[in-house]
């Protein structure tokens, strides 16, 4: 394929040679090209495509008529994974003095993609930055720079470029910007830099007013500083903003109420929340609350009623109900055995099932990624609801 393609290009070079000789006679150049043309063909016939390519690059003039051919050849090599060849072609184009600025930027953009494909991210970054000077390719280069900074988790740089992109063209970048600030806040929280993290979260809110992740992180920050009431307040905002993430907030809310040692308020909150969002995570918390603060009988009665009442009860609630039933002392042997079988079936059905799914591309997994590994959208992965999920 490569040899065939180069042979075609050599034939094309021969055509250009003839054309340029006719219009602008220049005997020495024409003779040199003629010689290179036949040497090149000789390399191809002897199965030495790299030498033939080098000769072709040297022989084929680079001007506005031929640049598209060079770029097409470079792009073809990149698509075939032959990156060093693509890089050589594009570097050769950039080094030519007779190209216009636009043509050089076109070649620089192609070179940046070569480096990106080769995983040489520092050079790709450098090349994309050069291209941002050109309004024609600026937006494309900014988008690619953000991709690089996301890969390298360089959030400050990602924020800087995203702000430029927002200013120039893309109002949709706000969601990504808010998540970049959240990523930065997560790093700062690990370093226990609470006030700096709060600044990042405040900035995140400026770009995306209603983002559950901001309040989850805010709660974490307050909790780390032993400010439990403020943490609880932040976590409770999640259900108002996006109840899909309630399952992420509930375990943290339970922890806060336990720290505050206010069981009545805790029970009232859980009952009220369950009325609004009858999810498995909430019913599990409510079951535990009844068991600890009332009685096992009340907890089991609650779960039994809810399993019967829900049109599509979750397997998680069923497992909890089985565990509660199995703890009853008066259980007769047959019933115990039936529950064991039921438990094994429910466990099997839940095994290896994803917990989260991307609403954009369908990527599913058991870890909550804020940046979808499948489609690279921010905040599109959410907890799964229904029988196999959170109810
Ligand atoms: Zn996705």
């Amino acid at each position: 394929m490569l040899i065939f393609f180069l042979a075609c290009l050599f034939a094309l070079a021969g055509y250009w040679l003839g054309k340029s000789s006719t219009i602008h006679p220049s005997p020495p150049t024409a003779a040199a090209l003629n010689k290179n043309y036949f040497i090149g063909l000789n390399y191809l016939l002897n199965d030495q495509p790299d030498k033939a390519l080098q000769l072709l690059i040297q022989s084929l003039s680079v001007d506005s008529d031929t640049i598209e051919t060079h770029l097409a050849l470079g792009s073809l090599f990149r698509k075939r994974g032959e990156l060093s060849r693509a890089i050589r072609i594009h570097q050769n184009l950039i080094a030519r003095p007779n190209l216009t600025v636009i043509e050089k930027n076109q070649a620089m953009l192609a070179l940046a993609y070569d480096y990106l494909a080769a995983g040489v991210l520092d050079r790709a970054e450098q090349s994309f930055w050069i291209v941002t000077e050109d309004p024609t390719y600026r937006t494309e280069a900014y988008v690619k720079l953000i991709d690089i900074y996301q890969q390298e988790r360089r959030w400050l740089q990602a924020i800087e470029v995203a702000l430029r992109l927002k200013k120039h063209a893309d109002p949709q970048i706000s969601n990504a910007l808010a998540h970049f600030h959240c990523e930065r806040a997560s790093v700062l929280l690990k370093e226990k830099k609470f006030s700096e993290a709060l600044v990042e979260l405040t900035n995140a809110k400026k770009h995306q007013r209603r983002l559950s992740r901001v309040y989850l992180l805010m709660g974490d920050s307050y909790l780390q500083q032993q400010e439990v009431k403020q943490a609880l307040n932040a976590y409770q905002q999640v259900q108002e903003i996006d109840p899909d993430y309630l399952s992420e907030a509930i375990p943290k809310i339970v922890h806060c109420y336990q720290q505050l040692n206010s069981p009545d308020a805790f029970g009232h909150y859980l009952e009220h929340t369950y009325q609004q969002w009858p999810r498995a995570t909430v019913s599990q918390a409510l079951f535990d609350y009844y068991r600890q603060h009332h009685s096992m009988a009340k907890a089991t009665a609650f779960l039994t009623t809810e399993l019967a009442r829900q049109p599509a009860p979750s397997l998680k609630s069923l497992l909890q109900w089985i565990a509660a039933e199995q703890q009853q002392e008066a259980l007769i042997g047959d019933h115990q055995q039936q529950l064991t079988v039921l438990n094994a079936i429910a466990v099997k059905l839940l095994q290896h099932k994803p917990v989260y799914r991307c609403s954009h591309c369908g990527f599913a997994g058991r870890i909550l990624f804020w940046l979808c590994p499948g489609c690279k959208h921010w905040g599109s992965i959410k907890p799964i609801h229904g029988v196999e999920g959170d109810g």
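The first strand starts at residue 356 and ends at 358. The chain has a mean pLDDT of 84.
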